[in-house]
Design a protein that fits this description.
The complex is a heterodimer of chains A (about 90) and B (about 140).
Chain A: E1 7-10, H1 18-29, E2 35-40, H2 45-55, E3 59-65, E4 70-75, E5 81-83
Chain B: E1 2-4, E2 7-12, H1 17-32, E3 36-41, H2 44-48, H3 65-76, H4 83-93, E4 96-101, H5 102-107, E5 121-123, H6 125-133, E6 137-140
Parallel strand pairs in B: 2-3, 2-6, 3-4, 4-5
Helix pairs in contact in B: 1-4
The chains are: A alpha+beta (about 90), B alpha/beta (about 140).
Chain lengths: ~90, ~140
């Protein structure tokens, strides 16, 4: 099955929390079902990004380990609507 | 799907670059976890948020020279985002509010226009107490 990458984010060189913040920003702009390729050389992303993807209801389709960086292929899931308290 | 957004309140008293860096990193983790973040600045932190200080003070404090040189270099070459850049980004992608303590603002003669645009309002401790009553978690720096 071939996948179509809607947006590639090259966050190599950025450290925590840069790559994750870039991913969140892009997800806010795209739609459910769109696929993103996040490239990160940050060691913290290895743990943080998959955990965030799962908690936020998206899908990590593939994690490719390359020499000094990783590709996180992410499919956007249903976006949650949160109700703010007070203020 | 709709549910209540959790709230993290952060009290910051220190005005050092290091502590504002810590503040921005904790806030980024919370925004990533879909929290609303409410920051209340007191003491030195109020002064650090004045227009003339945001974007200019990049002095890293540490007793370890290696830490100072590594951090300073990373800030200079853009590897690490400055705290004000990170907070600006967080305001774009999530719910983040910064309130400056009314008492400290008054005694330092700091009015709303004297603050950097990151600061949303000046309010008293009663407002902070109200924020606390709605918070799931509170962090003090």
């Amino acid at each position: 099955m071939s996948i179509t990458i809607k947006k590639q984010i090259d966050a190599r060189g950025a450290v925590c929390p840069g790559p994750l913040m870039e991913l969140i920003k892009v997800i806010k702009q795209l739609e459910q079902g769109d696929i993103i390729d996040l490239i990160s050389s940050d060691e913290g992303s290895k743990v943080d990004v998959p955990k965030w993807i799962e908690k936020a209801g998206h899908t990590l389709m593939e994690l490719k380990e390359l020499d000094g960086y990783r590709h996180f292929i992410v499919e956007i899931g249903e976006k949650k609507i949160r109700k703010r308290r007070g203020n | 799907m709709t549910d209540d957004q959790p709230v993290l309140s952060i009290l910051i008293k220190s005005g050092t670059y290091n502590d504002f860096m810590t503040l921005s990193l904790i806030a980024s983790g919370a925004i990533a976890a879909d929290y609303e973040v409410r920051i209340f600045a007191m003491d030195d932190a109020v002064y650090a948020l004045r227009k003339e200080n945001v974007g200019t003070d990049t002095v890293v404090h540490s007793k370890f020279e290696g830490f100072v040189s590594n951090m300073s270099e990373s800030i200079k070459n853009g590897k690490v985002n400055a705290w004000w850049t990170l907070l600006e980004e967080l305001k774009e992608i999530g719910e983040l509010k910064i309130t400056a303590c009314a008492l400290i603002s008054e005694v330092t003669n700091t009015h709303k226009d004297d603050f950097h645009e990151l600061v949303d309002e000046i309010a008293g401790v009663a407002n902070f107490a109200f924020d606390l009553s709605e918070s799931d978690h509170v962090v003090s720096i």
